[in-house]
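ENTRY TYPE: paired fold submission
RECORD: A
CONTENT: sequence, then structure tokens
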Amino acid sequence: MKAERVFFPPRHMPEIRLEGELLDGGKRGGPGGGRPCVVSHPHPLAGGTMLHPVVEGLWRAAAGAGLRALRYNFRGVGESTGELTAKSPLAIADLLGAIDFLGNAPVLAIGYSYGARTTLHAIHDGAPIDRAVLAGLPTRSPRNAAAMANLFLGRRVKTEEFTPYTDPDLAATSPRPLLIIAGEKDPLVEPDEYRSRGVRPVLLPGLNHVFSRRLGNEPPDPADLETLCRTAIDFLTG
């Protein structure tokens, strides 16, 4: 399958141009039947782009299952214009622009980390999303350097501090079916915050926030990435 490079604006923001890539797995058949699927990447301030290995794997797996899969860069990333800063609100308009571009709502959605948060909040805002996979959906964010060290070095730091999110409450009250997948050793995901609200995340043993077994911001092993992708696509197409 050859990817098609595309550009489109966020919803109600014609002055901004977002960059994306489309893989139309519907031409190959498969259980997805050509349904549209949008894939959203981690936060740009943490190095997130649509080229992230986890996003790449999920995007290609969606197309391989017969979905019409679009990955895109949030504003200010790659060749997307505009800017996201630490004080910017979630880029829900960017996600809505991607959905508008696919043009066949409701869509299936996959979000990873910041992309998962954006997807969850968009669902609560009424976005035409039928069901979604939220990979590495954080229950909290790092508040100091020690917490960031824990995230990338993979070890606990006594002085680490985190800021809780309200996202577990949103996940528990989602009007659409959700699947939360997280690494068992992800310091940003506290599974009990979900379980106490009746949400059952799928935890992948031995993996961190980037779904890797290695320290630092290293990509996943192929077998672990395959497990993540299979779990996600089975939920979306099953």
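RECORD: B
CONTENT: sequence, then structure tokens
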Amino acid sequence: MLEALASGTPVIASDIPSHRLPGLPLFLARGVDGALRQLIDLYNTFYSDRERYLELCRRGREAVVKGYSEDVVVPRYVRMFKEVAGSPSP
């Protein structure tokens, strides 16, 4: 999902808690019917309102850069490694 959003591709994903948690601009769908409706809506937006479609693409890229860039992720990993290394053994 992150790679697709980062490349400017809107993402349709199943509506499960782990997909809602990061707060990414995903199109959440329940079941095959929901996914099909989302796909048709995106298709129609692409052809009927190109500016809106491009805005969806831009929002996806921005969300990934904001939440998952090297400047954000690397310090989290470093902090995690320090916490684990500093923890006493069980």
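NOTES ON RECORD B: The mean pLDDT is 92. The longest helix spans residues 50-68.
STATUS: closed
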